[in-house]
Automatic annotation (TrEMBL):
Keywords linked to the UniProt accession: ATP-binding, FAD, Flavoprotein, FMN, Kinase, Nucleotide-binding, Nucleotidyltransferase, Transferase
Pathway: Cofactor biosynthesis; FAD biosynthesis; FAD from FMN: step 1/1; Cofactor biosynthesis; FMN biosynthesis; FMN from riboflavin (ATP route): step 1/1
Organism: Oceanobacillus aidingensis
E.C. numbers: 2.7.1.26, 2.7.7.2
The name this protein goes by in its record: Riboflavin biosynthesis protein
Length: 277
């Protein structure tokens, strides 16, 4: 997969014909996966590239000053997932105020018509352009007028609720991680830094400050550490300043290491933890 970092100054983003899915896609949940698979199938049938346009940072960080915006995945994790979804080219548009002020018609002209975009794939609630004025109706009108293809993916739901990144972020934050796979399609996974050793099998871990940790409690986790997979327990203390303790079954690790934790289910706390060095 080729990754292309863009700014609003870039003109034509592709010379080659391509089918482009557009959206932020935090977490690449089951709704996103349906959309991406649709785009992939179309691209295969038409023998053109399957591309995705995403944005960085999240529009809310730039437009609403939400500098503490939390993500289900970091940009490197999103790249990895997009590659696994079969994306040929990932466009990462720097989302800044200049780009945000682009009118919907100008977005269509520049990134669809002038960029050899044969077909666009978005979800039912996709918005774009200045003050989010562009929507699927406008895209539909323009696609008929200008001759590019358009697929609008209907709302994918679970238990009558729209599967959304916001909903999944809420589930993780509330510690309802058993429900997460029904929306995300997999367990919630987060990369952590191993900060220091504690006695026994315990280490202190810290996520990237943009990532989410579940609310306080104990969880059964799968730890992916290099090529090693082990199981353990993760304990989040009530106070956010307290250490987050991870107990590995097989604690072969070094200070400064990064490992990923997959949250499987809530655990009963059966013993008090050793937290002193
Ligand atoms: C060219 C462009 C300009 C945008 N300008 C705004 C804006 O002024 N205000 C806003 O709230 N969102 C704006 N957005 C963000 C979109 O409303 C939307 O969040 C983004 O396209 C990602 O789509 P998704 O949230 O469906 O994934 C803009 C998006 C694009 C592509
Ligand atoms: N449940 C869903 N069913 C169909 N399409 C979806 C669904 N969720 C998102 N999409 C589409 O996927 C693309 C990316 O959407 P976006 O990143 O805004 O996801 P989201 O889950 O709605 O995020 P958030 O909750 O942060 O608004 C958009 O084109 C959007 O319309």
């Amino acid at each position: 997969m080729e990754v292309v970092n863009l700014t609003h100054l870039d003109e034509q983003i592709s010379k080659q014909p391509h089918i482009m899915a557009i959206g932020f896609f935090d977490g690449v949940h089951l709704g996103h996966q349906e959309l991406l698979n649709h785009a992939k199938e179309l691209a295969k049938k038409q023998n053109v590239l399957f591309t995705v346009m995403t944005f960085s940072p999240h529009p809310n960080e730039v437009l609403k000053g939400d500098t503490d915006h939390k993500y289900l995945m970091t940009l490197p994790e999103k790249k990895k997932k997009m590659k696994a979804m079969g994306v040929d080219k990932l466009f990462i548009m720097e989302f800044d105020r200049t780009f945000a002020s682009l009118l919907p018609a100008d977005f269509i002209q520049k990134y669809i018509l002038n960029s050899n975009t044969r077909h666009v794939v978005v979800g039912f609630d996709f918005t774009f352009g200045f003050k989010a004025q562009g929507n699927t109706q406008l895209l539909r009108m323009q696609s008929k007028k200008s001759g590019f293809g358009l697929s609008v993916i209907p709302k994918k739901t679970y238990m009558e609720e729209k599967i959304s990144s916001t909903l999944i972020r809420g589930l993780v934050q509330e510690g309802d991680i058993d429900l997460v796979p029904y929306y995300l399609g997999s367990n919630y996974e987060v990369n952590v830094n191993i900060l220091q050793y504690k006695i026994n099998r315990n280490v202190v871990v810290q996520p990237n400050d943009k990532s989410i940790f579940p609310s306080h409690g104990s969880y059964i986790v799968k730890v992916n550490h290099g090529t090693k997979i082990s199981y353990g327990k993760f304990h989040r203390r009530p106070d956010s300043n307290d250490d987050n303790i991870l107990e590995f079954m097989d604690p072969v690790h070094e200070y400064g290491d990064i490992c990923s934790i997959e949250f499987i289910s809530k655990a009963e706390v059966t013993e008090s933890l050793s937290v002193s060095n």
